Amino acid sequence: MNRRTNTEWLSALRTSGQAQEEALEDLGVVIKSGLPYALSRWLSPSDPQFNTLVDETTQETLLRVLDQLDSFEGRSQFTTWVHKIAIRIALTELRRKRWRDSSLDEIMDDEDRPAPQHLMADSTISPEATTEQTDMVSHVQRIIQDELTEKQRKALVMLFIQGISMDDTARKLKTNRNALYKLIHDARLNLKRRLALEGLPIEDILASFQ
Amino acid sequence: MKFKELFTRARKLFKKDTELPPKAVEMLIQRLLITQDEELDCGEFFKLIDEYVEHDLRGEDAARLMPLVRHHIEMCRECHEEYDALMSILEGLAWQQIEG
Prior knowledge:
The structure holds two protein chains of two kinds. Chain A folds into two domains: 6-101, Rna Polymerase Sigma Factor, Chain: A (Orthogonal Bundle), CATH 1.10.1740; 117-208, Arc Repressor Mutant, subunit A (Orthogonal Bundle). Chain A has helices at residues 6-14, 18-39, 48-68, 78-101, 104-109, 117-120, 131-147, 150-161, 166-172, 177-197, 202-208. Chain A is elongated and about 75 Å long. Chain A is mainly α. In chain B, helix 3 (42-57) packs parallel to helix 6. In chain B, 75% of the residues lie in helices and 0% in strands. Chain B contains six helices and no strands. Chain B has one domain. Chains A and B meet through helix 2, helix 4, helix 7, helix 8 and helix 10 of A and helix 2, helix 3 and helix 6 of B.
């Protein structure tokens, strides 16, 4: 396989014909040699799905690279840029499969269905908690009800309690991962501002949960 | 079908707002300790992570050079996983080259 500089990769991929075909073939080899290092903690290499995932991810990555070639700004090695695209594709697929296999989609499609009882229980407050501590927790919960929107609270339950991935939570809330991050960031900022206004130090609140 | 839709709408009118269980409240409050006014979203992070990882691998202080990227790694589980995966690939390939 030819070793190429960033400029050589770009110029070969932008041509057509044999030079592009060779570059795509070489890039496929680069992706396939890297992916097992990223995937081995998710899927055993002996798993029958492993090779399929590597092949499908490689094909999808090559298409995406060609499509997004102009967005490469040369901030890194071209191949590092390609590996990150491959990772995004492979992990998104693995997360999607993980939830589909655990039938969580079914659970989440029924929005009235409560989360498992053990997750909803007041388990973080010990039976010996003082009245002061339980009052603090209830007070913070009231502030959250005031400051956060229904959508923000729903997102937090999915992410923190049900352990649903960002991509799946975004899909369920009919948004995208970037907007979801912004939604949660806004929630944190609003809450932080309100707690500061009320003179409630975050460390003291956390101590109430101990 | 129409009756079912009407029934669903009526039920939603009386439905209680989502309330965060204490565990979620605690996790949210913990994140407030490192919440910043300026943060990268996952898309902005994705644009920069290859550059960040290469700083890291060259032994440079990537966290100091690109603090917003470091912060996002701490805030976002998925992006943290993608950062780990990219590091694994580049380290694995570097070892392969040394051994090969």
